[in-house]
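Figure 2 data, in text form.
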Amino acid sequence: MEVISRHRAPASSSSLCLLFLTFLLSVSMAAATEKSPMQLNKAQENIMRDILGLVSSAMDSSLTKSWNTSSNLCEWSGVHCTSAASSSFVTRLSLPGYGLSNATILASICLLDTLHSLNLSRNSFTDLPSQFSPCPMKAELQVLDLSYNRLSSHLGNFSGFHELEVLDLSFNSLNDNISTQLNYLPKLRSLNLSSNGFEGPILTSMVTSLEELVISGNNFSGRIPMGLFRYGNITLLDLSQNNLVGDVPDGFLSFPKLRILLLSENNLTGKIPQSLLNVTTLFQFASNENKLSGSIPQGITKNIRMLDLSYNMLNGEMPSDLLSPDSLETIDLTANRLEGLIPGNFSRSLYHLRLGCNMLSGSIPESIGNAIRLAYLELDDNQLSGPIPSQLGKCNNMVLMDLSTNKLQGVVPDELRNLQQLEVIKLQTNNFSGYIPKIFSGMTNMEVLNLSANSFSGEIPSTLVLLSKLCYLDLHGNSFSGVIPPSISSLQFLSTLDLGNNQLTGTIPTMPTKIGALILSHNHLQGSIPSIIGALSNLLLLDLSDNHLSGQVPSSFANLKGLIYLSLCYNQLSGPMPELPRGVKVDVSGNPGLTICTEDSDSQYNMASTEDDFRSTTWVATVSFIVGFIISFYWAGIRKYCYWCFL
């Protein structure tokens, strides 16, 4: 036994070693398999190499950096493969914004008979080749995105695309009748034809599987057809930006799955259909910029989370339950004929409330403080009275607050100091009084501050310089006194400063270098005009009229190449008027000592002497200034909201 045992020991060791080596080999093979993705089917590899050649010749090579013949084709950017048996097949191809225009590439892509999804959006294709209709690709294709191209001719035949579920042809120039093509797509769920040139009545000959229909931004006309309500699977219906007329049909109970209904920017009339109130799945309804009339139905926001009925002719009072549903997020009723009080029950989830340009009266409800998520509040151009409720300070997510052009009064409550996220405050054209609240200086995200046409008094606080993002400051038409804070020059993004019609004294300080509009008129400023104003290269509008300025107009004004309007009237200026860039509208009347040296009979100097002439030139300057301001806004790198400065 002992001999046998000694003889078998080496054999057992060899077996263990062999097993261990086999295990190592299998592990290394598995690792090698993981590091070496399965290769593309040979036929499709040749097709993809043909596509590479066509793509590379059409675009910047940086977009196809991963597209090279030495790498696995399934790892190319925009290419997705699915493994099957011993090889892989291309199932998704995404080439958006590649600058493609040669239809030959479509003929090559058509040969990919395993393709499920094709994205060729944001290219420059003008038509689909004849090979597109009979191509092998159509057998498996489920998603086709040709949006943002230049397609304008006949689309060809979609017969055979039996698996196609999503078709996006938006933002092209198509105007041909497409209804016959849709009959070839039995599984179509989503159709986007927005922003083309389609005309005539709305399509009603479609497959019953359709769930999303987007035909906005076309020239469809006539009434909303009742035949549209046959498609009971619809979840998204966008008919906005067309030429539709007539009443909105009261047939929405036929859409039990409808989630989004967009009817904006048409010529629809009549009342809001009652059937909408019973579509329990509907969470967004927009029918703004139409001619809807009548009252807003009670319970309309019971299910709807986002409601936009702005720019219509709706009248009467707002329903008492309009703002109270728990899931309500957005209400926009701007520019209607609504009257009465603002309902007092506010949803805690309310995020955006726009009620401007109506005839609402009464006070702002104290219960608005319950809307703790409220970020955008616009109650401008109404007949609201009373003070700003201190409870508004609980809405510490507020980004924009517009209470302008009402009959509000009192002081700005200290509780608003909690609104640290505020970027826009518009309180102009009310009856507010007192000093500029110190709390504003702590709102460091502020970009727009408009307190004009009120009864504020005292000095302009130097602490406003802490608002480092401020781009628009309008304090005109108050009773501010004292000097203009010299620190105002450090507001590096300030583009508009209007301090006119106050009681300011002292001299004109150095101004921010990016200033585009500077209005200091109707004050008691004295001294000379600083020559450094001529270095403000973005200046478009300068109004220093009705002050006590003296001395000469700086020769540096000749450097104001972008200047559109200049008013220096009714001061005590003297000496020669420097030559200004051609086309500037100028008013220097009321300065007897000022001389204009020009031999040009068609002088650029407009000695505006009438109020109508003054208003005319001011309007031209203002319009031009808006355009310039927006341009400078982007140039300066300031983000959003530039349009708020002038609304």
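Caption note: Residues 1-36, 608-617, 623-647 have pLDDT under 50 and may be disordered.
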